[in-house]
Amino acid sequence: MYQVIGKRTPQINSVDKVTGAAKFSPDIRLTRMLYGKTLKSTHPHARIVKIHTHKARKLPGVMAIITGADIPNNEHIVGSYGAGDFSVLTTDKVRFIGDEIAAVAAVDEETADAAVALIEVEYELLPATFTVEDALKPGTYPIHEKKAESRQVVAGDVARGLAEADYVLEETFKTQTMEHVPPETESVVAEYDGSLMRVWAGTQVPYWDRVILSRIFDLPMSRVRVMVPFNGAPMGGRDIYRFLFIGAALAWKTRRTVRMVRNREEEFTCTTVRQSYNFHMKFGVKRNGKLTAMSCETTIDAGAYISWAHSLGQSQGHLFSSIYKNPNIRYIYTPVYTNNCYGGPMRGFGNAEVNFAIESMMDMIAEKLNMDPVQLRLKNAIEPNYKTPIGWKIRGCALKECIQRADEEIKKGFTPRADPKKVRGIGLACGVHWSGWRVGFNSIVRRTGYSTPEEVYNQNPHSPYITVKDGKVRWRLGFSDVQQVMDSDASSSIVVVNEDGSLIIHPSEPDMGQGSYTVLAMIAAEELGVKLENIQVRSLDTDSGTFGWGAYASRTTFVAGRAVQDAAREAKKALAKIASESLGTAPEELEFRDERIYTKSDPNTYVSFADAAFRSYSARGGKVLIYKGSCDPDSIVPDDMGHGSIAEAYAFIALWLIPPTP
Amino acid sequence: MTLHTERIYRVTIKVNDQPYEVGVGAGETLREVLRDRLGFTSVKHGCESGACGACTVILEGRAVQSCLLLAVEADGKSILTLEGLSSSDGQLHPLQRAFVESGATQCGFCTPGMIMTAKALLDEKSAPTTEEIKEAMQGNLCRCTGYIKIIEAIKSLASGR
């Protein structure tokens, strides 16, 4: 049925990877580059009293030394739910070892390192906290002015569900901090010539970076360009990363090209981690295995800054509610600040952690009920065309099939030992994940960095977003009445058909090695019948205008893929019209395959795809063959209780584990 | 210009059959010279401590971590980087082709180091077992593939060429 889809296809850019032609951000060499290095805190918690840079400035070859004070809009660059507590360079107090407070641009790396070593900082040491337990004790020295709030995902009546249960299991699970250890460390090449800012970086979210850069440096987006070369597997760690903005700040200050690459020690120290969690779960179940209630109280070791902690907690609440049928859900999560490294997304965005706890609970319940863990899961598993109590619209779902298949594989591959004293472990777990993520980022925070007009006024009294009326600061008319919640999860694309029938695709998300460019090319190849070797996917460049939310949440195939399909179908319509004029066949009767456009009823009546394309370029009044496409999935932004459906499609998983035969 | 160099050492190294004469500092690593000075960007900066293998090149027939060698140690020696593996008319080496066809690349960052180590192995042992492949490759880390396709790619050439 499909010509291209479903067929084993090497990545379209893997030849570049095996020849060394593939250039990652740290491989970019431009003339007269400067090299940047940062000064990090060596204390977990300390007030910055004064930063002395005079000795460092005297070093020959030092071109600039900056602190947060040198950056126009240094504060509030990122933070979930408007709690934008993170700056490009920290100015008030350092909150973890690795917190960056100054940066140097110099003629070479050695000079930059030497200059950093000459910067002297007067710190007032403060008590530091390293565990959630300590942070929750009354009287602990605060890390931020306000503690992070608890939030929740709730449906039904958990108290009643627990009361109705024949058995209630209550357990606590802890998961550990993890590092991404990306093969390519954080890096950025940034340049600013006084007019245009250009940034090359292995980012996952170039359009996010652009809006933040535009905000930081008061530049219209037309003067900010973010480009993503080959990208060495950030795995969630470069979903808005500070190093990129520091590099841009050095470029902005020096009006030069600045290259910054983290060494491995900095990568471990300064970059986001997968946070540790504490899950306190309470499940109610009937004797026959049917769940009556699921409750969980989670604390998140958010570390020094809020970062993505609120979003991670909410995501876990969604996942908690969406594997098993059960009307009574309560997921309450509290990010807790500590002086550990701050967290961020990492492979699964909270799923692996909460799933471990949920599935452990299910196994323990099965044991208590003396029930096959497979049967327990089958009894409760979500089915197709089901709306979960928090509103996830499940359309397709093969969870039960997956569980049954896992069960078959375990039974096939495992024989218990005769000796009851020798055990071999087998295991099964199931879960769910999303393909897309419509979570309603706050549009005011995105555009201004702040969540109140007073905060904007304090930063810039002349901000275009505010007015002062009767002595009170307000959002300007027409700005605040825009919906506060961004209700989009869109991707887009441009497909260009060249005169020779070859294609160029401009994507809206960068490939991070997962092969998304290959997927986009395959989709275009399938729609238009063009060979893969004649399709190029350009590496992400925000100047293309193909806006997309970013490479995260497993969204690129499902959302960006359909944007390419949309553009390719527009191209197909136009070329069908051209071919139809040539062949005398109605456009509906035409088939696109093997780089030909032929009549379905008589394949020998055809024009080559290339000839049809050329015709458009060479004829009077011919159309330029540039087609745009977009896709915004049919999902629903969650409300304050977490009710909504964040993706249009959800993937269900069952994993099984059997030991190798001895 | 390096800040702390008291003396410059003139070294001659052959890279991909081409001789280069470079003035290096005593503390400069071979990795720095190959990548930063001579522009062979396939030689990656991964850890600078010999743990990840991303900087692997072939020196006098042996796979080495170029971040652990001083440039002066390579004086008079012959080095092969990934850039020198394809033929002069651009034909892929069988190892490169195998990596493409087996799906052994994802982000591609570890790929140069993987291919160089694999080449050194296959030059020494034309038919390594899976265990021998794993042992030879254990100094090259990959965060994407889970290694299985990389081993398959190498194994596909392991019946002698």
Give a description of the structure.
The complex is a heterodimer of chains A (662) and B (161). Helix content of chain A is 27%, strand content 25%. Chain A contains 17 helices and 28 strands. Chain A has a 7-stranded mixed β-sheet, with helices on both faces. In chain A, strands 7-15-14-13-8 form a 5-stranded mixed β-sheet, sandwiched between helices. In chain A, strands 23-22-21-27 form a 4-stranded mixed β-sheet. In chain A, helix 6 links the parallel strand 10 (197-201) and strand 11 (224-227). Chain A is globular, with a radius of gyration of 28 Å. Chain A starts with 13 loop residues before the first helix and ends in a 5-residue tail after the last strand. The model of chain A has no long low-confidence stretch (mean pLDDT 95). Chain B has helices at residues 30-37, 94-102, 111-124, 130-137, 148-155; strands spanning 9-15, 18-24, 56-59, 62-65, 78-80.
Q: Give the largest chain-chain interface (CB within 8 Å).
A: A-B, 40 and 42 residues
The proportion of strand residues of chain A reads: 15-25%
**End-to-end C-alpha gap of chain B:** 46 Å
Task: Report the radius of gyration of chain B as a whole number of Å.
Answer: 16 Å
Relevant terms:
heterodimer; A: 662 residues; alpha+beta; seven-stranded mixed sheet; five-stranded mixed sheet; 17 helices; B: 161 residues; 5 helices; 29% helix
Summed up, what is this model?
The complex is a heterodimer of chains A (662) and B (161). By secondary structure, chain A is α+β, with helices and mostly antiparallel strands. With 161 residues, chain B is α+β, with helices and mostly antiparallel strands.
List the helices and strands and how they pair.
The complex is a heterodimer of chains A (662) and B (161).
Chain A: H1 14-19, E1 33-40, E2 46-52, H2 54-57, E3 62-67, E4 93-94, E5 100-106, H3 109-118, E6 120-125, H4 132-136, E7 151-155, H5 158-164, E8 167-175, E9 187-192, E10 197-201, H6 206-216, E11 224-227, H7 242-254, E12 257-261, H8 264-270, E13 277-285, E14 291-303, H9 309-320, E15 329-337, H10 351-369, H11 373-380, E16 386-387, E17 393-394, H12 399-413, E18 427-434, H13 443-448, H14 453-459, E19 466-469, E20 472-475, E21 491-497, E22 503-506, H15 516-528, E23 535-537, H16 556-583, E24 590-593, E25 596-599, E26 602-608, H17 609-618, E27 626-631, E28 650-657
Helix pairs in contact in A: 9-10, 15-16, 16-17
Chain B: E1 9-15, E2 18-24, H1 30-37, E3 56-59, E4 62-65, E5 78-80, H2 94-102, H3 111-124, H4 130-137, H5 148-155
Parallel strand pairs in B: 1-5
Antiparallel strand pairs in B: 1-2, 3-4, 3-5
